[in-house]
Amino acid sequence: MMKAVVCLEPGLMEARTVEKPVPGKGEVLIRVKRVGVCGTDIHAFSGSQPYFQYPRVLGHELAGVIEAVGEDADFPLGVEAYVIPYLECGNCVACRQGKTNCCTRMQVMGVHLDGGMCEYLVVPADHVIKAPGLELDQLALVECLAIGAHAVRRADVQPGSTVLVVGAGPIGMGIMQFAKARGARVLVIDTNAERLGFCKDSLGVDAVIEAGDGARAQLESLTDGDYPHTVFDATGNPKAMMAGFDWIAHGGSYVLVSVVKADITFSDPEFHKRELSLLGSRNATREDFERVVSCLLDGSVQASAMITHRGHLSQLAELFPLWVQPSSGVIKAVVEVG
Question: Is the pTM of this model over 0.85?
Answer without folding.
Answer: yes
